[in-house]
Input
Amino acid sequence: MTQGSGWKSFCKRSDTVSGFLIQSQSQIDGKHIQTFVSVDNKANKNFSHAILDFLPVPVKIEAVSQGLVFCVNHEPRDYFICKPTTLQWEKLPNPKTRFLTSMTAMAVLSSKPLRYKIIRFSSHKNPFSKFKSRLYYNMTCEAFDSNTWAWKRLKNVSLPYCVLLGIDQPYATSCGAFYWLVRLARINQVFAFYYGDDKESWEIFNLPPPMEESDRFDYKKLVEYQGRLALIICEREVMDLWVMENHEKKLWSKRKTWTLSTKVFKQVAGYIPPLTALYKSDIALIKGRDKKLIFYKFEDSSANVVSLENQPHEVSKLQSDSEKVNLRG
Output
C-alpha cells in the first residue's frame, strides 16, 4: 500500500474522520512530516498515516480548524488551504508582510456556505516602542477572509515587553476568539484575539486565581470544552479542569478533577507527562517518550499507545466529514 492510498481508502470508508494531525520533522532532510492518528486503534494499524502528500509541494502546517488545514511551503514561500478528507486544496495569495511569522490561527465561521478566517502575527520592523515610560513589543497582524480572498492589514498588537507568549503551544478557540497562554514574570495569563467582522481586538486576562502563579507552565493547557474556553492543569497525578463560565466577567469555575494512574504512565512513559490535547471530555492525548502518543481514558484509567516513526512536535485536533466544499467560499 502506497503512502497516499491508505489515507484515501480510509476516507472513502468513513463518513467522518476524528483524531489528531501530528507534525514531525525529518532528522535526515529537516522536512516536515504530517501523519494522522485516531483514537480507534484499528484505524492506526490498518492504513498508512501520510495525510498531506496530495499537495503539490512539501508543507508545514500553520493552523487547523474543523477539517481545514492552513499550511505553507518555504521555498518558494507559498500558502495553501486544504481539506485532507476530500483531497481538495487551493493556493492562497501571499501576505504582504516581509517579516517572519510568529503565530497563526484559523477559524471556520460558517460551514454552509463555507467561510473561514486566518490570523497571522509576524515580527514588526520596529519591534519595540515606548509609551509613558513603558516598553512594548509590537507584532504585525494580518487577517485572511475566504469571502474576500485577500489579506487585510490590521492594527498592530503591542504587548508589554515582559509578556512572553507560549507560541510553541497550540491555541484554543471559543466565543469568537483565539487564546494563547502568556507569562508575565511569574504570573500566567491569557492572550485573547477576537476575530469578528470589523471588530478585531485583543486583551490579556488572568487565569483562575489558584493557577496564576506557577512555574509549571508546560503543565497548563488551554482547550475548548463544550463550546467554552477551558484550562487543564496537571500537578503530579492530579488533573483539574477549569471552565470560563462567564466570559464578560472572566469568571472561572472548577468543573472536574481526575486522578491519573501513575502505574499506567510509568509503564508507557516512565513519568506523567503534560497534557498534549483533549480529545473528548473523557479522553486525553499525551506525548510519551520514544516517539509514542498515549490516548488516556479517564473513566477506567486505560491507555492506548500509538508508536510513530518520528518524534511528534505539533499536534492538532482533526474532525471532518467527507463532503466536498468550495474552498474559495
